[in-house]
Amino acid sequence: MAFVFRYQLLGIGHIYIEYALLHEPLNGKLVRLYVPSKSLRRVNKMFVYLPPGYDESSSRYPVVYLLHGQPGEARDWFYDGRAHETAEKMIFNHKIKPLILVSADCYGPRGSNDRTDFLNAKDGHIMVEDYMARELPNFMDGRYRTIPSPNARALVGLSSGGYGATNIGLKHRDTFGVIVSHSGFFEPRFERKAIRRMLGPTGSLWDENSPMRQVKKHRSDELLHIFMDVGRSDDLLDDNDMFAKELAHYEIPHNYTVVNGSHSWSLWRSRFRVSLPYVAGRFETLSKH
After folding, report:
1. What CA–CA distance (Å, rounded) separates 194 from 70?
2. Under a CB-based contact definition with an 8 Å cutoff, are residues 70 and 107 in contact?
């Protein structure tokens, strides 16, 4: 009985958080959508930030796809990360051009603690890579006035989302042109238990979903730019150092920064204020190709 009561309180807390989030005063607009997904086999929740002037204009906009950590969910980027607030301030101050933000729930069927690491399950019970690389971009391009080009799509992830952004971004260069990892990892072994549940025993599927092993396929790709950072006190520092060395070895343009801090929202909020202008700048550069 006590467990049920605590669960009900938690649910009420979530409702209040999202209500408050969706009613913040903005010049743009933050909306919550529930959209049926074949890849995820459920009606899935997502949050979309539309920039100031979207409703009044006929312009098309680039899209930044935000991948949450795991455990975690889509609203984290907006409630804890204040991504919409950062974007709105930068647009208002003419530091970036207007763009759209979207974050969708990418956890497993058991809820926000059910890790998928943004992978396609070997047994097909959930296909998160397919969702992020195909289904969600197709939905966004159909629903909103986006620029339907990889040169106008970015993947930005934190923690497990950093792994997801890098893994999916490298495998789907025809969909995404910009990759950002905040405090991510680049070898499946860092989430061994969850990834075994998604991919089965260690083997070829693990190699296919290892950015560390796959990066060599992109040697000297001048249009591929990867932004990555990590806190100096983060347990993932060594893995980030190693991946940056691999990028340098294969002559892949990248921006790597080690900053003071740990695996925390305080770091991710501050670093998004750096990565978002980077993404907007890459959109400008890629639009000329």
Report:
1. 10
2. yes
Question: pLDDT grade, residue 105 (50/70/90)?
Answer: very high
d(CA 162, CA 159): 5
* Structure tokens that stand for 152 in this block: 């106008």
Query: Please, which residues have CB within 8 angstroms of residue 216's CB and are 6 or more apart in sequence?
Result: 246, 250
pTM: 0.95
Strands (E) located in 207-274: 225-231, 254-259
CA distance 32 to 40: 18
Any idea where the domains of the chain sit in the sequence?
Answer: 28-286
- What tokens appear for 250 in the block? 């294969």
Q: What is the token pair recorded at 234?
A: 């983060």
With CA atoms as reference, report the closest residue to 255 among 282, 227, 278, 279: 227
Q: What region does 32 belong to: left with phi over 0, alpha with psi -120 to 50, or beta?
A: beta
Give Cα separations from 283 to 44, 97, 155, 250 (angstroms): 28, 10, 12, 23
Average pLDDT of the chain? Answer: 94
Question: What does DSSP assign to residue 23?
Answer: T
- Record: fold of 28-286: Rossmann fold (3.40.50)
Which segments within the chain are labelled E, that is strand?
29-37, 42-50, 63-67, 100-104, 153-158, 178-182, 225-231, 254-259
For the chain, the maximum distance between any two Cα atoms, rounded to a whole number of angstroms, is: 61
Q: Which amino acid is it at 235?
A: D
195-205, pLDDT tens digit by residue? 999 999 999 99
Residue 51 buriedness (CB in 10 A; 0-12 / 13-18 / 19+) = buried
How far lies 130's CA from each of 30, 167, 211, 257, 262, in Å? 25, 12, 17, 30, 31
